[in-house]
Amino acid sequence: MSSSPESRPAREVFRAFLLLGLTAFGGPVAHLGYFREAFVKRRQWLDEHAYADLVALCQFLPGPASSQVGFALGMMRAGPLGGLAAWTAFTLPSALLLMLFAMGAGSLDGVVGNGLLQGLKVVAVAIVAHAVWGMARNLCPDSQRAAIAVAATLLVTALGGTLGQVVTIVLGGLAGLLFCRGSTEARPPVPGIGISRRGGLLCLGLFLALLLGLPMLAATGSGLALFDAFYRAGALVFGGGHVVLPLLDAAVVQPGWVSADDFLAGYGAAQAVPGPLFTFSAYLGMAADTVPGGLIGAGLALVAIFLPGMLLLMAALPFWNSLRERTTIQALMRGANAAVVGLLVATLYQPVWTSAILGPREFALALVGFTLLAVWRQPAWMAVLVCGLGGVVLNLVPG
């Protein structure tokens, strides 16, 4: 008999996610590839279908999708404390690096630094391609779902943006209802998360109370304006990643808290660190010319931008297992999961491939990374190491 989530040590979760927090370059979609390799394929914390369902759920919810998936994986393994351990370990390395950058510690530049950045872009190609290949084999096993994936790729490429992603997944789910209504599958339940349905409703209530109440508290001059600005940004963005940048610009640049030049410099530094792009908030909180600023401001901004997405996730997960067992929901998820594969294919091309593969040398390096993952079955950090060093070599040796 397996142990309950609460009895599993959260330190196991912390160690697993700390390694990813130190090596998971490439942005949200690449992070989903890292998670799949680490927790579905290697550790087998959950199966492919449960993982894909979780990814689809997080794509629907506001907040940083990849960080929400990681938080949920931690909760499924070790309860709420495991979720906190997963979030802390995955988020802290990049947050600390960006806080140091805000303090003037410098950034990656020069021939070696630029080569390393290029290598890290290339490894994202290998990781996303490996994730797409594995998920397509499992989630698009028939002609109907393969067709949905292809249509989703074309649609999200044509529409673009976060709205295009959400519309594509919704239409994929509707296509599943029409064309993927096979018999109900006896799917293994998603592991428990240690939160009851009542607890989920309380999380939803807290999310709404903060969303409505923080602006009023901030207006009193209580020093909560910074927390409110980042909480609102995290609550209104779907998909996470680069989508949050316009909201952050409106939150800190337009009020004059951070200059446009400092904002862009921090965004550039955020591309050079592993982990979630939402840790850009720690840099902005540190650099903001408003109360409280400094280390406290960085901590408040970091917590505030992640908090709404995590509250919504904890509100949804207690109801997730029962919904997954219904025939109509399974048909919907078959279509939605196939659409997620199409979304990953589109993202593999733009921006992952187009920003990293500049010529035959980068293509060869990406092929080496893909071979390490798919053929030699090496861990993702090995591909990161090889491609990072490879990028430095390519930048030092004239093409």
Annotation keywords:
mainly alpha, single chain, 17 helices, 399 residues
Structural overview:
Helix 4 (65-102) runs antiparallel to helix 13, helix 5 (110-139) packs antiparallel against helix 17 and helix 16 (360-374) runs antiparallel to helix 17 (380-396). The chain is an all-alpha fold and 399 residues long. The radius of gyration is 21 Å and the shape is globular. The chain has helices at 10-23, 28-42, 48-60, 65-102, 110-139, 143-159, 161-179, 197-219, 225-236, 245-253, 260-270, 280-287, 294-316, 320-324, 327-356, 360-374, 380-396.
Brief summary of the model shown:
With 399 residues, the chain is mainly α. It contains 17 helices and no strands. It has helices at 10-23, 28-42, 48-60, 65-102, 110-139, 143-159, 161-179, 197-219, 225-236, 245-253, 260-270, 280-287, 294-316, 320-324, 327-356, 360-374, 380-396.
**Class by helix and strand content?**
mainly alpha
Outline, from the CA principal axes?
A: globular
Ends: how far apart? 58 Å
Quote the beta fraction: under 5%
From N to C, what is the helix and strand string?
HHHHHHHHHHHHHHHHH
Q: Total number of helical segments?
A: 17
Please tell me the overall pLDDT: 85
Task: Give the helix/strand layout.
Layout: H1 10-23, H2 28-42, H3 48-60, H4 65-102, H5 110-139, H6 143-159, H7 161-179, H8 197-219, H9 225-236, H10 245-253, H11 260-270, H12 280-287, H13 294-316, H14 320-324, H15 327-356, H16 360-374, H17 380-396
Helix pairs in contact: 1-4, 2-4, 2-5, 3-4, 3-15, 4-12, 4-13, 5-15, 5-16, 5-17, 6-7, 6-15, 7-15, 8-9, 8-13, 9-10, 9-13, 11-12, 12-13, 16-17
